[in-house]
Amino acid sequence: MFPSPSTDIMGNSQKDSMTDDILHQHRIRCHDPTITFSDEMYNEALIAIEDLCIVIANLPLSNFGMNSPNRTASDLINTEMNRELQYSTVEMAAIVARNVPLLNEEQRTIYDRIMLAVSAGQGGFFFLDAPGGTGKTFVISLILAEIRSNNGIALAVASSGIAATLLDGGRTAHSVFKLPLNIQNNPDAVCNIKKQSSMATVLKRCKIIIWDECTMAHKHSLEALNRILKDIKNSDKLFGGTLLVLSGDFRQTLPVIPRSTYADEINACLKSSPLWRNVEKLQLKINMRVQMLQDPSAETFSKQLLDIGDGKVAIDETGYVKLPTDFCTIADSQDTLIEQIFPDVHTVHKS
């Protein structure tokens, strides 16, 4: 049971507050701070509220005794397009101008390679292999900003909600592509995106899709995306000719398959998909986080992590990895553990 909201939620006393973000987006997009509230904006806010009701309760606003928004096809298309075109081209250009000179040689090579593919407009399929600390998020954020500075659409998705929050405009892949929840059991899964829908229009027009932390995704997700893009764009090209950049680190979390074996997890990986043979691999190796710390122990620890991920460390007779003696600190009690992780926590907390 869901409690009924006040029917005055979009009445005169509330509608401006509920629509304030939409007004802000319109002002940015039109570069006009004098734009005021309109009936179209109020309707757009109602659509957003109803979308949340459908996601949470699978019920439209009319079921709660409220007026439903006017959902014409153009309204729906504008809502999705507005989300992706809300960025200030001036602000995006400033981000690019300020940060591109900060790229190291390795990062700049990858940035230039992907932007070359964007300019060519012929699609492409890349995987950016980037261990933690190598500046992956920095690079892909600049690619997103560069495209948006020219009023282009750049979709940013991630396999987890936490990873999505690190990208400007980032959302989960399941949310954007409407992937089924039981995708691991369905090799012929399809994305729930209608060909004439607002999301389909965005996918047709986008210059690039960047999918971060892709290594957590099931291969069926990638294959479902390939099918829907081909269908939407009426193209037999890989991903319908859309430029797709995957990024992540296969040394980290792989797809989680309930009650599975190691073989099941490997089979679920993107690398096990027939599509993977088409990928162009890019790699970031320089750990900028370690360089900034200028701490030899941090560099040693970083190398140890990579060696474990690359399978270069010794394995005992039971099949377990033998960790180096200096790899971790053994805590003999909970208090010791807390003190090691949060030094002087009591002093800091009191201050």
Radius of gyration over all CA atoms, rounded: 24 Å
How many helices does DSSP assign?
15
Report helical residue fraction: 40-55%
Going across the biggest sheet, name each strand in turn. 3-2-4-5-1-6
Biggest pleated sheet: 6 strands, parallel
List keywords for this structure.
helicase, DNA repair, single chain, globular, 351 residues, alpha/beta, 6 strands, six-stranded parallel β-sheet
Plain-language structure description:
The chain has 351 residues and is an alpha/beta fold. 46% of the residues lie in helices and 8% in strands. It has 15 helices and six strands. α10 links the parallel β4 and β5. The longest helix is centred in the first third of the chain and has 19 residues. It starts with 14 loop residues before the first helix and ends with a helix. The model has no long low-confidence stretch (mean pLDDT 86).
Short description:
This protein is of the alpha/beta class and 351 residues long.
How are the secondary structure elements laid out?
Elements: H1 15-30, H2 39-57, H3 73-84, H4 89-99, H5 105-120, E1 124-129, H6 136-149, E2 154-158, H7 161-165, E3 171-172, H8 173-177, H9 198-205, E4 208-212, H10 219-232, E5 243-248, H11 262-268, E6 280-283, H12 288-293, H13 296-309, H14 334-341, H15 345-350
Parallel strand pairs: 1-5, 1-6, 2-3, 2-4, 4-5
